[in-house]
Amino acid sequence: MSKKIAAGADCIVLDVKVGEGAFMKTPEAAQELATEMVSIGTNVGRKTVAIISDMDQPLGLGIGNALEVEEAINTLKGNGPKDLVELCLTLGSYMVTLAGAAENVEEARTKLEETITSGAAIAKLKEFVKAQGGDTACIDDTNLLPKAKYIIPVLADKDGVVEKIHAESIGLIAMELGAGRATKESVIDLAVGIVLNKKRGEQVVKGDVIAYIHSNDENNIEKAKKDILNNYVISPSYVDNIPLIHHIVD
């Protein structure tokens, strides 16, 4: 909050994560943090809203640097994962409303959806990338982004419904593949990571692809396969009733 306030932002929308993969593990802790952050912003004259959103499973499908960049590009083109699109539209709608560019969040959402369908959203991303000296060609052709040498499917070992994906553990597996740093000396491989193919509440049959490993080291693939399987909970039956948006604090 201090950086946002110091930078001069007059409207602030916070995404407060809750769940196994978040800093705040329980709804109560997330609510307390969100309330405190909104209070800080309000007390210094900033229009502030906090969205408490689910992180009990990974958001979207890609986990890894280039994989997440590609997913963000696809989202702005209108082809993003359902949960990521919904969260972006929710956060964006509140920001547009706070800024006075829409009368309410419903109108704001319609405007945001129009920027995606019209191509204005992806055009704005190109402006941002160009302004920072980046290569906009990879936005038109995501095959220009770093790609892993090995893309290996992980197959379900039983029939059922995905009840849980241990978000924090999946993130650590991606780190071990090279997508993150175990120590400050670790070298990040921009190409590697995990792409989920099945999310919570989805039906699977033994042999279905539940995820893909993207790796540049064939020696870490088998361990990653085993670890991913161990962190997918597949039950005989399950109805997913965990909301993406838990609560809005304003």
Automatic annotation (TrEMBL):
Its Gene Ontology cellular component terms are:
cytosol
Q: Which GO terms describe its molecular function?
A: 1,4-alpha-oligoglucan phosphorylase activity; thymidine phosphorylase activity
Q: What class of enzyme is it?
A: transferase
Q: Which Pfam families match?
A: Glycos_transf_3, PYNP_C
**Where does this protein have coiled-coil stretches?**
none
Q: Which SMART domains would you find in this protein's record? A: PYNP_C (SM00941)
Q: Which UniProt keywords apply?
A: Glycosyltransferase, Transferase
Keyword Glycosyltransferase annotated: yes
Single biological process term from Gene Ontology: pyrimidine nucleobase metabolic process
Which EC number(s) are documented for this chain?
2.4.2.2
Alphabetized Gene3D superfamilies for the sequence: Nucleoside phosphorylase/phosphoribosyltransferase catalytic domain, Pyrimidine nucleoside phosphorylase-like, C-terminal domain
Q: Where is the Pyrimidine nucleoside phosphorylase C-terminal domain?
A: 161-235
Keyword NAD on entry: no
Write the protein's name: Pyrimidine-nucleoside phosphorylase
Provide the species name. Answer: bioreactor metagenome
